[in-house]
Design goal:
Number of helices: 15
Oligomer: single chain
CATH topology of the largest domain: BirA Bifunctional Protein, domain 2
CATH superfamily of the largest domain: Bira Bifunctional Protein, Domain 2
Largest sheet: 7 strands, mixed
Radius of gyration: 26 Å
Bound molecules: glycyl-adenosine-5'-phosphate
Structural class: alpha+beta
CATH class of the largest domain: Alpha Beta
Strand order of the largest sheet: 4-10-11-17-14-13-12
Shape: globular
Number of domains: 3
C-alpha cells in the first residue's frame, strides 16, 4: 500500500480548511495574517491535546498544580522579565518592495541555498559566522555585514536595496483604561504565559501546601508581533502556550532539567508522533538566552524542516530574583528539611499548542492507494481524534436508523461521535478517514436479529462484527492499545 508523506504544508493547509480544522482569521474580510481560527474538528483536536497535556503535567503528579493567570499584567512584570529591553528580533526592510524580513532568517535561507548548490564549505563557514554573531548590542551590525558581504537579495523583489538592520520589540502594546493615552497607561499583551506563573509563585506557596520541588502549570494565550509569520500555525501573532515551571533547590536543577527533557520527549511520543520525526537539539552555550543556564528544543521534522515545538529551559533563579528586585517582595523559600532559605531555581517546559496541533496533523497525514483508488487519511492517535466514531445505518431506512441512533446516544455519554446517513457507505468512510475518525460503526440488516454491528478500523480498514452492546468497550480497548504504524 504506497504511502505519500508531506513535502510542504500546502496539503495540511488545504485539508484543515476543507474539513474544518483551521481557518484563516476574519477570512470574509480578506483574512488577518498570522492569526487563525479553529473550526469544529480543530477545536476538538486542540482540546484533546490540552487535556492530554494537563493530565500528564498536573493530574498524575501530586506536586504540580495549575493556575490560569490574566493576559494583562502589571507593566513592571515585563521590565523585570527583560522583555521590554530585550525581547527583540533583528529586522531589515527591502526598500523597493517595502517588505520586512528577519535578518537572521534571510541568512539562514541563503545558507540553505548554498547547500542545495552543493557549496557546503561556504555554507558551514556562514553558519559558523551566524552562530557567533555578536551580543544583542552588536547583533544588528554583524547581521548587516553578512547580508552586505554575501550580497543577499530580497526573496520577493530580487533587489539588493536594504535598510539598516534594526531591533524590533515583539510585544503588542495597548493603553489601559479610558481616560488618557500616554506612556503611563501602556500595557502589553503577554508574550509568554510563564510570567503569570512567576508572579503567582508566592500565592501558590501560601495556599496550595506545596513544598519545593513543586510545579505550576498553565495553558493560555500569548501574543508576539512576529516580523515574519508565513508558516500557517507554526508562527502566529496570537497563539497558545502550555507551560510548566518546576521550582527546585539550587544544585538539583541540572538533574531535574535532564529528567524533564526526557519526560517531555516521551510525552510527544505518547501523542502518537513517530519517534524518527522527533529529536532533541540542545542550545550551544554561547547562544543561551540571558536567563538560561541550559536550554534545548524538542524539534519535530515539519515539512518546512526540523523546527522547535517545545523548549526546555533551566532558568536558574533569574525570574524570581528579578521579581524580588522589581516588586520589593521577598521570593525566598524556607526549606524545612534543610533548614535554609533560598530562591528556588526553575526548570521550565514550554510547548506551543498550535505547533503541537500542526505536528500532530503533519505526522498523521497519509495518502494511500487502496484497490487502485486513493484515500487521504489522518492516522491520529485515537485519544486525540476529534470524532471517536462515525455511526451509520447502512441505508436510510428503519429499523436501521433507530438502532444507529440508539448506539449514538449510548456512545455520546463517553465520546464525541457523529451520526451520518448521507451518501454511499464508501463515501462516508472516506469522509471520516480525512477527519481522522478511528472507528466507524455500521448498522446493517444482517445484525438486526442478533443485535450485532460492524466496526471498521480507520488504519487498516479491517472490519469486525461485534455485539452492539459492546461497542463502548471495544473502542475503549482499542484506544488503550493503539500504537503508531
Ligand atoms: N516561556 C518560554 C518561552 O516562551 P519560547 O521558546 O519563546 O519560550 C515556547 O516559546 C514555545 O511557544 C515554542 O517552543 C513554540 O512552540 C511556541 N511559540 C513561540 N512563538 C510562537 C509563535 N509565534 N507562534 C506559535 N507558537 C509559538
Amino acid at each position: 500500500m504506497p504511502v505519500t508523506h508531506l513535502d510542504s504544508l500546502d496539503k495540511i493547509v488545504s485539508l484543515s480548511k476543507s474539513r474544518g480544522f483551521i481557518f484563516q482569521s476574519s477570512e470574509v474580510y480578506g483574512g488577518l495574517s498570522a492569526v487563525y481560527d479553529y473550526g469544529p474538528l480543530g477545536v476538538e483536536l486542540k482540546r484533546n491535546i490540552q487535556s492530554a497535556w494537563w493530565k500528564a503535567m498536573t493530574q498524575v503528579h501530586d506536586n504540580i498544580v495549575g493556575v490560569d493567570a490574566a493576559i494583562f499584567m502589571h507593566p513592571k512584570v515585563w521590565e523585570a522579565s527583560g522583555h521590554v529591553e530585550g525581547f527583540n528580533d533583528p529586522m531589515i526592510d527591502d526598500k523597493q518592495s517595502k517588505k520586512r524580513y528577519r535578518a537572521d532568517m534571510l541568512i539562514e535561507q541563503h545558507i540553505l541555498k548554498l547547500r542545495d548548490k552543493g557549496d557546503d564549505e561556504k555554507a558551514d563557514e556562514l553558519q559558523q559566522q551566524l552562530n557567533t554573531t555578536g551580543t544583542r548590542k552588536g547583533l544588528c551590525e554583524d547581521l548587516y555585514d553578512i547580508i552586505m558581504t554575501e550580497e543577499i537579495r530580497s526573496p520577493d523583489s530580487g533587489a539588493f536595496d536594504w535598510t539598516e538592520v534594526r531591533q524590533f520589540n515583539l510585544m503588542f502594546k495597548t493603553h489601559y483604561g479610558a481616560v488618557t493615552k500616554d506612556e503611563d497607561d501602556v500595557i502589553y499583551l503577554r508574550p509568554e504565559t510563564a510570567q503569570g506563573i512567576f508572579v503567582n509563585y508566592k500565592n501558590v506557596l501560601d495556599t496550595a501546601r506545596v513544598q519545593v520541588p513543586f510545579g505550576i502549570a498553565q495553558i493560555g494565550k500569548a501574543f508576539r508581533n512576529e516580523v515574519v509569520a508565513r508558516q500557517f500555525v507554526f508562527r502566529m501573532r496570537e497563539f497558545e502556550q502550555m507551560e510548566m515551571q518546576y521550582f527546585v533547590e539550587p544544585g538539583t536543577d541540572e538533574e531535574e532539567y535532564d529528567k524533564w527533557l526526557q519526560a517531555r520527549l516521551n510525552w510527544h511520543k505518547s501523542m502518537g508522533i513517530r519517534p524518527d520525526n522527533l529529536r532533541i537539539a540542545p542550545h550551544p552555550k554561547d547562544k543561551l538566552a540571558h536567563y538560561a543556564r541550559a536550554a534545548a528544543d524538542i524539534q519535530y521534522k515539519y515539512p518546512i524542516g526540523w523546527q522547535e515545538v517545545e523548549g526546555i529551559h533551566n532558568r536558574s533563579d533569574f525570574d524570581l530574583s528579578q521579581h524580588q528586585e522589581y516588586s520589593g517582595k521577598k521570593m525566598e523559600y524556607f526549606d524545612q528539611k534543610l533548614q535554609k532559605r533560598y530562591i528556588p531555581y526553575v526548570v521550565e517546559t514550554s510547548v506551543g499548542l498550535d505547533r503541537t496541533v500542526l505536528m500532530v496533523l503533519c505526522d498523521a497525514y497519509r495518502e494511500e492507494e487502496v484497490d487502485g483508488d486513493s484515500r487521504t487519511v489522518l492516522k491520529l492517535h485515537p485519544k486525540l481524534a476529534p470524532t471517536k466514531a462515525g455511526i451509520f445505518p447502512l441505508i436510510k431506512k428503519e429499523p436501521l436508523q433507530e438502532l444507529a441512533r440508539k448506539i449514538e446516544t449510548d456512545l455520546k455519554e463517553e465520546y464525541t461521535v457523529l451520526y451520518d446517513e448521507s451518501g454511499s457507505i464508501g463515501k462516508r468512510y472516506r469522509r471520516q478517514d480525512e477527519a481522522g475518525t478511528p472507528f466507524c460503526v455500521t448498522v446493517d440488516f444482517d445484525g438486526l436479529d442478533d443485535n450485532t454491528v460492524t466496526i471498521r478500523y480507520r488504519d487498516d480498514m479491517k472490519q469486525d462484527r461485534v455485539s452492539a452492546d459492546k461497542i463502548t468497550d471495544v473502542i475503549r480497548d482499542e484506544i488503550k492499545s493503539w500504537s503508531v504504524k
